[in-house]
Every structure is written in C-alpha cells, then in structure tokens.
Amino acid sequence: SLGDEVPSVSGDNLVMNASFEAEDVSSWQVFQDGQISGWHTDQGSGIEIQDESIMPGDSADGDQHVELDSHNNSNMWQDIPTNGEGTFEVSFAYSPRPGQDADTNIIGVYWDGELIDSVTADGGSEMDWQTFTYELPGGGDTTRLEFRAAGDSDSLGGYLDNISVAN
Known about the structure:
By secondary structure, the chain is an all-beta fold. 0% of the residues lie in helices and 37% in strands. The protein has strands at residues 28-31, 47-51, 64-67, 75-80, 87-95, 107-111, 114-119, 130-137, 143-149, 159-166.
C-alpha cells in the first residue's frame, strides 16, 4: 500500500515522492486520499498535480508540482519517520500561481500539528520558485509534515515542489 516504505539511511530525504513525479500526468489531475504515492489528504476535494507545461515557467524539480487549491482548499500530509529526538531540516520550494495575488496563494506549513509558517506572494508572469528551510525538532517515531491551502478557496492556489526532510 502507499506510504509503507520507510527510508533507512540517515541524512537522505525522508519524504516519499518529494517532487510529485511518481504519478505521471499530461496536464493536471486531482487525486484523492491514497492515490498519490506517500501523500494523504483529509480536507477539500483533493490534491492537484500539474505538469509544468500548463503554466509559464518550469517546476522547481522534475516536470511536475502540486497545487492544494484544486477545486477548493485542501491539504496534504505525510508521516515522516523521525525515530525519536533530533533536529530535522525541513525544506520545500514554493511558487505563487502566475497572475494571482497573494490572497489566493497562501499555504500553511505544519510540523507535528503546529503551524510553522504561512507562505504567500503575488504571482507574476511565470513561476517564481523560492525555497523555504526550517530547523525543527522531531516529534517521536513519526512526525507529521502537512501543507494546507489557506488562501481564497477559488481553485487558484500556490504551488509546492521538491519537499525535503533530512537529519
């Protein structure tokens, strides 16, 4: 089943399907819980994977990225094998949706159930990827990393790609 594989080498990226390349889409597709390798959703109508060909500019890593405001605001999460105590470097690439203002591009970042940050920006004429990095304590055997669309629920939201958790 999806999400059962656990990376075992310390220092490697502990996130499964970190750049949303496991499911190949030709333009865009909305996925329900359990349909994307490694990722789950329990809010909204699904997780939208987009191919970089449908928007001006490239994905941050690979050919695909994710949008959480598919038909409405949704979330995605993954329980990361943090194996007890320690500090982890959590990072991801974020881009506002081109042509949309900051009010619709907000994404909340949660670690172990706590809001760590809300990221947003006005979208320009093409993708504008920025990497956000945090040093965070592990929350036990597993720690939940979650992203939630938090802007206007209008099917036009910010993008995520190249998600990493490493220790």
